[in-house]
Amino acid sequence: MRKLPTYTMTSTILVTGGTGFIGSHATVALQQAGYSVVILDNLCNSNPSVIEGIERITGTRPAFVQGDVRNAQTLDTVFTRHAIHAVMHFAGLKAVGESTQIPLAYYDNNIYGSIQLLSAMQRANVRTFIFSSSATVYGNPTTLPIPESHPRSATNPYGHSKLVVEDILESLYASEPGWRIARLRYFNPVGAHPSGLIGETPQGIPNNLMPYVAQVAAGKREKLQIFGNDYNTPDGTGVRDYIHVTDLAEGHVAALRYCEKADQDMLTVNLGTGEGYSVLDMVAAFKAASGRPIPYEITKRRPGDVASCWADTTLAKQKLGWAATKGIKEMCEDAWHWETRRTMPG
Length: 346
Ligand SMILES: NC(=O)c1ccc[n+]([C@@H]2O[C@H](COP(=O)([O-])OP(=O)(O)OC[C@H]3O[C@@H](n4cnc5c(N)ncnc54)[C@H](O)[C@@H]3O)[C@@H](O)[C@H]2O)c1
What we know:
Layout: E1 12-16, H1 21-32, E2 36-41, H2 50-58, E3 63-66, H3 72-81, E4 84-89, H4 96-101, H5 103-124, E5 128-134, H6 157-175, E6 180-186, E7 188-190, H7 209-217, E8 224-227, E9 239-240, E10 242-244, H8 245-261, E11 265-271, E12 277-278, H9 279-290, E13 296-299, E14 308-309, H10 314-320, H11 328-343
Parallel strand pairs: 1-2, 1-4, 2-3, 4-5, 5-6, 6-11, 7-10, 8-13, 9-14
Antiparallel strand pairs: 9-12
Bound molecules: nicotinamide-adenine-dinucleotide.
């Protein structure tokens, strides 16, 4: 793999949750953009072998600290040992369904974890923060595409935890000068690095469509359940804004660069493609990418699911000069490449 040139003045970025799905791709994008990365992850939903994948792609091994963002001492040690310039905060729990069963774990991890991290940043005088928010904060969208000004609401503890951290960031920004904060609202991240060396590794039954479809195509699951085909959409199935995870990762680098240029600022921006695809569109695209049949059955709607959701991407283009470049063909091809490389070697 290609070795990066040596930079004499590298900025070091702390990436919490950096061995997870999105954090690992952001680490690759950061290293390829010339940044040094320190990953902090407690490995509750990831594997340290991801570090090898990152190293093989970029030629550089990120520093890795196994630890929890809720641990103040761990955080202080990280900030003391490394000259951190900015923090990208991916660490957290993310399953909507699970959050209704163990809400305290979600509030503890996602809200208390963020407070601990921001407090450690204050102690270390680091004030550039990029936060993983979500389109889930738009609740049941009343306008499409969804602009950042759309009213926010939450219907489950996961969504609520994102709303609260967004609010905490607003209060913090108003309370003292010098903060440079980006609240990035992701739509539906899918796909994997085109090398097939890093990707999404769901534990147990996947919560999201794409990893589930990949497992059906691989013959690991019998069929896909499609929750409802009576929505007010072209084919009746739910429509979402899927974004390739490498595009999303580049969006983070763009947000970091934006923050670096400001004396202080707080930016809230959608990261999506601005296009919506139905479940059946995604099934057809994955079938074409994998050459495998994808059996499915239609079942009843899942409570809490919305009919359609896609991003207004105007602000991201305007402020960050960033737009997604990859379509659903590449998303499905890369997800399939990762699935086959990871679980069907040879
Ligand atoms: N994947 C999505 O569909 C999606 C959509 C919108 C927002 N997000 C947000 O993006 C972020 C990253 O999501 P992802 O899909 O990469 O999830 P992921 O589970 O793959 O990655 C999260 C990582 O954080 C680590 N982690 C969790 N709690 C921790 C803690 N207390 N201390 C240290 N490490 C901890 C996990 O081990 C994991 O490696 C999350 O905050 C998530 O809520 C994800």
